[in-house]
Write a sequence for this structure.
């Protein structure tokens, strides 16, 4: 079946429920993270200076990353051996309770930094389990030919959450500080209900002859042995780690562009707008040819956009450069996600998705820390421009180290991969 003849993912009820769940949960997540950070910063400023209080925000990101890093082997195994629907239902329900707890603590004026630290760790644990389960569930709900379009639609839901969640959280917080958390609790509850509506999902046969530890190691070994999957995951890791421009948006908005709070909001939304445009295009016209080289080209464009942002002195140009970065990143996410999902046997998809999620989180949170540290040493402009140059260099290097990336002309695995999948019980 060709992509043009494949059913649209939203015509499939089970996928519609999953898509709505992702939309609601992403909206809730980014609204919750914004208000959580805002409360943490304001509480810290009661006793600390600006610099130390800003460091609290970095600590919140680290507290979320550490449990994800530690739990990655376990969460991937869980997604491969338990019903992925029940994993998602449980985690989303817990997140709804977390949001409700924050609402009650805020409403009763009992919110403290210690509570916020604890919630950050819990959110990291929840995200560690939810990501592999949801990302590996989608290929079980749609035909293989429809999967690239489904990935694009899933990313649209994510980017809508990135834009709309923080956009509504601020005004709601101004009305009542507890209101955004009540909204998040409701959205997480709706997301949970949506996953409960997903019917039985076909799964490949699970090999239970090996112990859990050996199965965890098998998943990691598969990532290492499949050079296409390894190259796609590590390319994203190093490019985003080196070229993390978003961490410096407040610095550029205030001290370089002189754009104030309005400019801050516009700059923060620009990458998501670019990503939304590309994701929308791919949801209607899926990419099908020369996908590997196009992904490599997108990473070069990402580096160029980062350099342009670092050098720009006017708001509109900075917004355009960030939108280009978001569009290029979305291009890479789309191709990389499709390649990983289609080239990974279903019985290992959860473990591979967990590794992918861990590297993405590492590139984001740790990349922000790297950019911030370089900004202290060489200044924010040099840090951003240098990161963009490094991202382009890494892309060129990866095209040589992993020729499988450029050789991927379509999303379909080669015949040898398909036979290997069947020998392991894959689809």
């Amino acid at each position: 079946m060709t992509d043009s003849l494949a059913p649209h993912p939203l015509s499939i009820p089970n996928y519609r429920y999953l898509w709505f769940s992702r939309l609601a949960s992403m909206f809730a997540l980014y609204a919750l993270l914004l208000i959580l950070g805002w409360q943490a910063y304001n509480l810290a400023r009661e006793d600390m200076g600006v610099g130390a209080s800003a460091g609290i925000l970095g600590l919140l990101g680290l507290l979320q990353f550490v449990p994800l890093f530690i739990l990655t082997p376990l969460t991937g195994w869980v997604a491969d051996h338990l019903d992925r629907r029940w994993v998602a239902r449980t985690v989303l329900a817990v997140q709804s309770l977390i949001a409700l707890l924050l609402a009650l603590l805020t409403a009763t004026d009992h919110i403290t930094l210690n509570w916020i630290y604890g919630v950050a760790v819990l959110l990291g644990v929840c995200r560690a389990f939810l990501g592999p389960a949801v990302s590996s569930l989608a290929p079980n709900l749609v035909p293989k030919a429809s999967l690239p379009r489904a990935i694009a639609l899933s990313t649209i839901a994510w980017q809508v959450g990135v834009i709309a969640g923080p956009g509504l959280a601020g005004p709601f917080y101004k009305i009542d500080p507890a209101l955004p958390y009540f909204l998040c609790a409701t959205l997480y509850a709706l997301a949970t209900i949506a996953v409960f509506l997903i019917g039985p999902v076909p799964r490949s046969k699970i090999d239970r002859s090996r112990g859990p530890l050996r199965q965890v190691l098998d998943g990691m070994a598969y990532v290492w042995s499949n050079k296409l999957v390894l190259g796609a995951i590590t390319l994203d890791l190093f490019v985003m780690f080196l070229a993390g421009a978003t961490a410096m948006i407040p610095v550029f908005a205030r001290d370089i562009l002189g754009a104030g709070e309005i400019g801050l909001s516009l700059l923060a939304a620009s990458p998501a707008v670019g990503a939304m445009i590309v994701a929308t295009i791919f949801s209607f016209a899926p990419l099908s040819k020369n996908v590997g080289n196009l992904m490599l080209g997108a990473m070069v464009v990402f580096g160029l956009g980062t350099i342009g942002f670092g050098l720009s002195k006017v708001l509109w140009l900075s917004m355009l450069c960030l939108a280009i970065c978001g569009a290029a990143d979305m291009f890479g996410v789309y191709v990389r996600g499709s390649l990983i999902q289609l080239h990974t046997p279903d019985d290992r998809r959860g473990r591979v998705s967990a590794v992918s999620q861990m590297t993405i989180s590492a590139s984001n949170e740790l990349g922000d820390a790297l950019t911030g540290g370089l900004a202290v040493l060489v200044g924010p402009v040099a840090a951003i421009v240098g990161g963009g140059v490094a991202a382009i260099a890494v892309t060129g290097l990866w095209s040589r180290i992993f020729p499988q990336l450029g050789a991927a002309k379509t999303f379909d695995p080669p015949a040898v991969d398909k036979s290997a999948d069947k020998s392991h019980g894959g689809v």
Remarks:
- The chain has two domains: 1-203, 210-427.
- Residues 1-203 form a domain with the Growth Hormone; Chain: A; fold (CATH 1.20.1250.20).
- The mean pLDDT is 78.
